[in-house]
Amino acid sequence: MRGGSVGRVDLRRTARDLGVLAAAVVIGLFMLQGALEEYPGKSSAEAWRDVAVGAAAMLVLVLFRRRWPVRVCLLLTVAWLFSAVAMGAMAMASFTVAVHRPWRATAAVAALNTGLIALTFALVPLGGARERVQAIVVVTLGYAVLIAAGLLVRSRRQLISSLRERARQAEEGQRLRVEEARLLERERIAREMHDVLAHRISLLAVHAGALEFPPGAPAAQRDAAGVIRRTAYEAMEDLRQVIGVLRDDTRGADPDRPQPTLPEVPALVEQARAAGAHVTLEDGLPDAPEVPDRIGRHAYRIVQEGLTNARKHAPGAPVRVALGFPGRAGLTVEIVNPPPPGPAADALPGAGAGLLGLRERVALVGGTLEHGRTGDGGFRLYAWLPVPADEGPGPGRDL
């Protein structure tokens, strides 16, 4: 791919060089023809010398015009004083200066060459004063057109470069936003797991303490229970030190609040209804086995994110939330809404960070997540979360 890109760049450079050379040759031959018409007594040796100097000027132009545009232009200006053909190379060198150098350098070179053109045509006998003025005007206007074309090419390249840089910055910003969303969701999951682990370990420490201090307990039992209790407390301290940094940047977080699970989904739906949303809950889990808390927490977050997206992007549209347990092997969560009843401009913009976070959650437990537009222009969010047959809620099952 890189070799093909380099090849295309080299092909463009070659095409541009050939175009500049062709324009220089045309201008040079035109000036040579005019010189021969004005000086019919010019010998063939002088004509061939003029062509030779002009050819050397063309070669210098093609080889060095990009590396040293101002120096090449000044050198070809001197060559033009001895060769009419070299004027074509000088003109295209001025065009190159306008393309590759700032306007100050371009203005200086243009002023110098314009003055030399006017002075040369004024000193050389070309008939009457009227013919001289006409020649100076025509050549100066042609030279000005070349300079203006070069400035136009330079401004166009700068515009394209600016647009490419903006596009690159936009892509980089989007990539950073996506990465930040993933990291934030992983931190959120880590905080939730910290709360759950802290609760489980504290229960373990309490029960170990109860086994350590009962009257008449064997010494071996008290020693073992003491080891368990101290290890549990040390584990809680280590966990607090590791996860505590995640809470420093969480404004307004309530570390003691229990994490919501699947039984809190109806309350979440009621909150959405109280806020004015039209939400229908299809609960297909009455006869299903109990869902572990670690799966229920992710299901709750999926429903929460689906309702939030529906409220942002389809305000006023009815939302259907469906929970199921097909095949008794996994929990399904589906949130569907039709297009909003109002104009599309009423919807709030979003960056998709919430869906990225859900993908992280679902991938964490080995599930699948699907989302996209429906046939009628609505939106569907579907997740499948695996539930092991021998797993249920309770101590030790939430790790």
From TrEMBL:
Annotated Signal transduction histidine kinase subgroup 3 dimerisation and phosphoacceptor domain residues: 185-249
Species per Swiss-Prot/TrEMBL record: Actinomadura macrotermitis
Reactions this protein catalyses: ATP + protein L-histidine = ADP + protein N-phospho-L-histidine
Gene3D superfamilies: 1.20.5.1930, Histidine kinase-like ATPase, C-terminal domain
One Pfam match: HisKA_3
Entry's EC annotation: 2.7.13.3
Protein name as it appears in the record: histidine kinase
Keyword Calcium: no
Example GO molecular function: ATP binding
GO cellular component: membrane
Keywords: ATP-binding, Kinase, Membrane, Nucleotide-binding, Phosphoprotein, Transferase, Transmembrane, Transmembrane helix, Two-component regulatory system
Keyword Transferase: yes
Transmembrane spans: 18-36, 48-65, 72-99, 105-126, 133-153
